[in-house]
Specification:
The complex is a heterodimer of chains A (about 375) and B (about 290). Chain A has about 375 residues and is α/β, with parallel strands linked by helices. Helices cover about 45% and strands about 15% of the residues of chain A. Chain A has helices at about 1-15, 25, 40-60, 80-95, 105-120, 145-160, 175-185, 210-215, 230-240, 255-265, 290-305, 310-330, 335-340, and strands at about 30-35, 70-75, 100, 125, 140, 165-170, 195-200, 220-225, 250, 270-275, 345-350, 355, 370-375, 380. Chain B is built from 11 helices and 2 strands. In chain B, a hairpin with a 2-residue loop joins β1 and β2. Helix content of chain B is about 75%, strand content about 0%. The chains are: A alpha/beta (about 375), B mainly alpha (about 290).
Chain lengths: ~375, ~290
């Protein structure tokens, strides 16, 4: 297939009788990607790949970049860091890509980092862990919010409601445990005391025991759940079953329509931090992110017939950051693109407004998160 | 404090009932073929997933559950006919590995048909909670316990009082002897898979409003069911239920009184201790191996 494409491309250039000197200039700009399209993180990697494909096509339809076409070279690492490492090697050495977008999971990203640092090639990760950009590494950037920001956003809201004794319920998965660590780390900064610290398994059918313990913890004023997928829905259903009234907070890990459907009417009043993308329709007209998230949601739904997820949004942000940087650099020279990336200011993505610097390779602040509340079975902006 | 203890126990009962429903299927298949079927979790998954899909397609709940059970029975039959029967001269270890392959295959099919997401089945008896001494229980949990009890009674009658049931047991004890007295051994082995697949699916459907359901829900349920069946004594349906309930209650008490971080470890340590004293499980029959 690749050979065929190359043959076609060769045929076209011959037909157009391009001057020989322009040939290297018209070679496509190669965007490399190692994504977890199948396997445990497929719900992240699948929309990411679809998003990259969609926008590479769109950009090419508009004439490409610097007068050159874009070409996406992607591999499926199935969330296996070993595979991610060897695909990154292949992207760098054989495919000779100009930069790499993603790393879907934190594990895959960490396996790619040593390679890009050594090869000196810009790398924009789509994974969550704080460790990816802390301390900042010269060639590594990332787009998604961190667990710490989610915890901080929740605590900000709790302070506003004068809730400062919190019961923490975290999932014993990588996501939940990282969330727990960050939550415990930033709690003192907001004057929050964690009065109960419980955990549950991602597939546990019943979590009333842990909730009962939290309910009976002395002085507890609110609950924060850190988990992904089905566990938080079971927690919310059990919360309803126990007739609990403590304010219930979830993490950004459950920010999908599926959560409301699974948790049912017990989800009424649940609050969580989420990216603006999920509530594109609810954003006030003046919101700077509104046009970006609305356009992305519309384009994605038109092409794939399914609702957007924040994960696809991370890929959109990663690709567009790269595109903007290449535009400003006016070249695909790796060092110049990296410098241009680092100088990104006021880039508006689906995840928030990005201001990168030498010390901050994520560039989002807490305004990137919107505090949502589930009201009448749908999302609403929390007041 | 009493209400807290009662809530721990009810929580354990809910989880335990799910493990018990899963464990019964392991027992039945072990009873007929001596094989541990690691695709049992997938039959449970089919029960939940197919019920959810049929209900959302507009089928009334009882019909959806019945069709899901039939579908799973068919999957069990195909697994036996296409994979197990063809390898009937292979060792038991090979057969067990074949069931693992079957499990991965069924999960893959479900992921394509059902998608990667999670869905919930509406509770059969509504979600008005039952209050007991300040603690609460969903009616669905009660229904799961009743389903488990009904299955135990039905299986006891089937294996103890019907010719077919006795033929199943005879085949598991000595295949050659069973064949010599005129039992169609191949049909009997297929029946064992069909039966356990149907039982697994019924359990999966009844548990689906609590566990929620997805294409990979069978992994955890199958594992816990296997542990429960071993704890209760493989091949004994009553033992499977007792093992399941015990496992659930131990988990809940460990989470409640020790620490929820160690709740998976504590019951397994206890189970190791029990199996050390009674290697054939709580209700396992004593078997003397011929040398």
């Amino acid at each position: 297939m690749r050979k065929l494409l190359l043959a076609c491309a060769a045929g076209f250039s011959a037909a157009l009788a391009l001057p020989a000197r322009a040939a290297p200039q018209s070679a496509p700009i190669k965007i490399g990607a190692s994504l977890s399209v199948t396997g445990v993180a497929s719900f992240l990697g699948d929309p990411e790949l679809k998003t990259l494909q969609l926008y590479v096509e769109q950009l090419n339809a508009k004439g490409g970049l610097l007068g050159r076409k874009l070409e996406l070279v992607s591999y499926d690492d199935a969330a296996d860091p070993t595979k991610a490492n060897s695909f990154a090697k292949r992207l760098i050495e054989e495919d000779k890509v100009d930069l790499i977008v993603g790393g879907t999971t934190s594990g895959a990203t960490m396996a790619i980092i040593p390679l890009v640092e050594k090869a000196e090639i810009p790398f924009i990760s789509l994974a969550g862990a704080v460790a990816i950009v802390e301390p900042p590494k010269k060639w590594v950037f990332k787009t998604p919010h961190t667990d710490r920001m989610a915890a901080e956003k929740v605590f900000e809201d709790m302070k506003k409601r004068k809730l400062d004794k919190v019961g923490l319920l975290s999932e014993n998965s990588a996501f939940g445990q990282s969330g727990k660590k960050e939550t415990l780390g930033v709690a003192p900064k907001y004057g929050i005391t964690i009065v109960a610290d419980e955990s549950y398994g991602p597939k546990d059918p019943d979590i009333t025991t842990q909730l009962t313990k939290i309910k009976n913890a002395p002085g507890v004023q609110a609950i924060l759940v850190f988990g992904l997928g089905q566990g938080p829905a079971v927690v919310t259903r059990n919360y309803g079953q126990l007739g609990m009234t403590l304010p219930l907070y979830q993490s950004h890990g459950v920010a999908s329509e599926e959560f409301i459907k699974l948790a049912g009417k017990a989800s009424e009043g649940v609050r969580l931090p989420a990216s603006a993308l999920l509530v594109a329709g609810l954003l006030p007209d003046g919101d700077p992110q509104k046009p970006v998230v609305t356009a992305y949601a519309k384009a994605y739904a038109a092409r794939y017939g399914s609702a957007v997820s924040t994960f696809g949004g991370h890929a959109y942000d990663g690709l567009m950051l790269a595109v903007e940087a290449i535009k400003r650099a006016g070249t695909t020279d790796k060092a110049k693109v990296r410098d241009a990336l680092e100088q990104t200011k006021g880039f508006i993505g689906t995840g928030g407004v990005v201001n990168l610097s030498a010390t901050d390779h994520l560039g989002l602040d807490l305004t990137a998160f919107r505090m949502l509340e589930i009201r009448n079975g749908t999302w609403a902006l929390a007041k | 404090m009493l209400s807290q203890t009662v809530q721990f126990l009810l929580s354990g009962l809910t989880s335990g009932a799910i493990y018990a429903l899963s464990a019964i299927g392991f027992s039945v298949i072990y009873n007929t073929s001596g094989v541990i079927n690691f695709a049992q979790g997938e039959f449970i998954m089919i029960g939940g997933v197919a019920s959810v899909m049929l209900v959302s397609a507009g089928a009334p709940l009882p019909l959806a559950v019945a069709l899901a059970v039939l579908l799973s029975a068919l999957a069990g039959l195909l697994l036996e006919k296409l994979a197990i029967e063809r390898a009937r001269n292979a060792s038991q270890a090979s057969l067990i590995i074949i069931t693992i392959g079957g499990s991965i295959f069924l999960q893959g099919v479900a992921q394509v048909v059902f998608g990667r997401g999670q869905r919930a089945l509406p509770p059969f008896l509504g979600d008005e909670r039952i209050r007991i001494a300040g603690a609460s229980l969903l009616p669905q949990s009660g229904l799961m316990v009743l389903t488990g009890a009904a299955l135990v009674a039905a299986l006891a009658w089937f294996f103890g009082a019907t010719r077919l049931g006795k033929a199943l047991l005879a085949t598991s004890h000595n295949r050659l002897a069973a064949q010599l007295v005129g039992i169609d051994v191949r049909a009997i082995l297929a029946l064992g898979f069909v039966l356990s697949a149907a039982i697994g699916a019924l359990g999966g459907a009844v548990a689906a409003p609590i566990t929620l359901t997805s294409s990979d829900v069978g992994v955890m349920l199958g594992l816990k069911g296997f542990v429960a069946a071993t704890l209760g004594g493989l091949g004994n349906a009553m033992g499977a239920v007792a093992g399941g309930l015990l496992l659930g209650v131990l988990e809940a008490l460990a989470a409640g009184y020790v620490s929820s971080a160690y709740k998976d470890a504590v019951p397994f340590v206890l189970i190791l201790a029990i199996l050390f004293v009674r290697p054939r499980g709580l209700f396992g029959a004593r078997v003397t191996e011929r040398v």
